[in-house]
């Protein structure tokens, strides 16, 4: 009964939050130091939309790492497939926006199927390396074929077939609502995955794959399906990205982006859906604010020993990431949750710790069985 | 014919470079099961500091070149040792976190390098002989390739001697084979963890200086670009196998150069395709140990 109340409470809170987010463009709220402009103006809305796109991407990555225990370094490939896919389709096929979106998602799914099926020949750390290699191949393809993808310059969105209400700075508000809807969709998918038999099977495989096999279950297919769902969710985020930015750059398929997403998820807390969303927001806000800080006069006047590190936002984020991994296992969400659980007398859970057992399981059996 | 020889020589030279990176990665993974994403920044820092040293001595002299290699190696060793002691050791046996920490370090270090040395590549020069060519079977091969091949061969030979004939080497080999047993025999494996990091770091630092002469420039992304190919090499060669890494380095680089020359610049793509083929046919890599 208690659990029922709590889950309804969480659902009500989530709905209230979405409603609040949806109302933001109609309100005049200023948060100095966080948002560049009051909430009804395009500056703040564009930043929040970008944060929501990254949150959706982080959520999709959390499906892989948090639910499935798969450390992939190639997730940006599917994000880029959505972004570049839609851009290329709109520029060359002359179809309207929505069929174009569907085609881009199908494209992302196809790429994910081929690369996922091959990568899953190995597990654990080798899996991470192989996914990285595939993403690198995608990145090279994008940079080389500049006649189709725009190369280093990036690809700008062909707006002939995009409905007018989604084009231009004046319509940032509509794009904001679109990305909010996208985030909600990806959240619901993640929620469904975590509650479904598929998700249970994948997370059981994360815990102890050998035991599942002994029980006669076949976790590989579940893991592949999970991989595909996560990839298509990432493609959806990529579609939101190109619409929002009215273009895409090669960074959208680079290993850098995957690492950025990893930073978001770990910062927020691996295995927590709200942690991934929080991580996406936190990263975007920090990245933008630290860039502003880097150009500020207070930093300019420092001696170069301090000025150089402080004027590199990515250096600060990387350092923050290392500190979180070393001293705050579980990220923000995990720390809050275990504090909450200790207060109410429950048992804290340690998501990365659970992953650890899995890594051990994947990497060590050869050793244990040999001895 | 002479073009083919040149392409092959370019491939072997590049393969030597890959091996300087991959050997450390493979040893570290074999012993500690850590995927070291920061290996590329060891290389980059070695290249930058090595270049700074060479510049102060007048970059075109041989003494400056030798000193820059030594400096690169020392910087790589120190950076790697500090990384192991400060970041990897506190997370003992927590492999995912160890990988994440190295990812964070690479992320932060590349940004810091860009802050210090700028985001544009620094073009470098060395002794004039390095840029000249030597004729071999009718092909004119840049001398820097020979230096790379000599360095990689020397590294391979000294690693083999070290692993086979010294006490520490034996502990490392035993640790790769069965770490639980080595620990149970009362041997402190942790010391050899630091040691493999130091060895890997020195190879990467030397590799950094040579890579800079191979490409003609140093940039903050030099190491991370090579790192991805070194990952591919270690997977194809078989994780934890030094000989596998050596063979795969040359195979991958030659294949890459051949495809780049004869198949219109598709080298990177062919390498990834080769990786896919190896994974489908033989997931443990060429010389990887069979999972029991």
Automatic annotation (TrEMBL), chain B:
The keyword Transmembrane helix applies. Belongs to the binding-protein-dependent transport system permease family. LivHM subfamily. This is Branched-chain amino acid ABC transporter permease. InterPro entries: ABC_transp_permease, BCAA_transport_permease. It comes from the Bacteria. It comes from Demequina zhanjiangensis. Keywords: Amino-acid transport, Cell membrane, Membrane, Transmembrane, Transmembrane helix, Transport. The chain crosses the membrane at residues 6-27, 34-51, 63-87, 99-117, 144-163, 193-214, 226-255, 261-281. Its main location: membrane. PANTHER family: ABC TRANSPORTER ATP-BINDING PROTEIN, BRANCHED-CHAIN AMINO ACID TRANSPORT SYSTEM PERMEASE PROTEIN LIVH. It is a multi-pass membrane protein. It is found in: Cell membrane. Pfam families: BPD_transp_2 (PF02653).
